[in-house]
């Protein structure tokens, strides 16, 4: 049953206002609490995402460092490969020179041996001639 406006008392207006204010205050408090919870949840999610981003960043940094290390190792490997190939060339030249020296030495040895054998034969011939003279 509604009270006619003319019969509404000041007390009723105050009670109505207090009830409305209390209800509005409760609704506002609930909405604030809901929004505070949403902000807290968002902050937690943001913190988790920051942590995941840090982990990803650290992994990327390690990967970059590994790539730099691999590039440096590859550069060193190329340098050592070039030096190794140069050493192989020098070794081959050295081996060819050594083989040539051995061949020349053998030829010289054979010449000297032949010259010595010739002198021995000559000496044998002289000795034989001398032995004929005594006979």
Describe the structure.
- With 135 residues, the protein is an all-alpha fold.
- 93% of the residues lie in helices and 0% in strands.
- The chain contains 1 helix and no strands.
- It has one helix at 10-134.
- It is rod-shaped and about 185 Å long.
- The N and C termini lie far apart (181 Å).
- The model has no long low-confidence stretch (mean pLDDT 88).
Biggest beta sheet summary? none
Whole-number radius of gyration? 56 Å
Please provide the count of β strands. Answer: 0
Helix content: over 70%
Q: Measure the end-to-end span.
A: 181 Å
Number of helices: 1
Strand residue percentage: under 5%
If you average the pLDDT, what whole number results?
Answer: 88
User: What is the 3D shape?
Assistant: rod-shaped
SSE-based structural type: mainly alpha
List the keywords.
rod-shaped, mainly alpha, 135 residues
Quick synopsis:
This protein is mainly α. The chain has one helix and no strands. The chain starts with 9 loop residues before the first helix and ends with a helix.
SSE layout and pairings?
Layout: H1 10-134
């Amino acid at each position: 049953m509604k009270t006619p406006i003319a019969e509404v008392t000041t007390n009723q207006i105050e009670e109505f206002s207090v009830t409305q204010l209390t209800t509005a205050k409760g609704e506002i408090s609930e909405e604030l609490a809901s929004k505070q919870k949403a902000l807290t949840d968002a902050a937690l999610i943001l913190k988790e995402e920051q942590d995941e981003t840090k982990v990803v960043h650290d992994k990327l940094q390690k990967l970059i460092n590994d790539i730099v290390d691999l590039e440096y190792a590859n550069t060193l490997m190329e340098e050592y490969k070039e030096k190794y190939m140069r050493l192989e060339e020098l070794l081959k030249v050295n081996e060819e020179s050594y083989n040539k020296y051995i061949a020349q030495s053998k030829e010289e040895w054979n010449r000297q041996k032949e010259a010595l054998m010739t002198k021995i034969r000559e000496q044998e011939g002289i000795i034989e001639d001398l032995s004929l003279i005594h006979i």
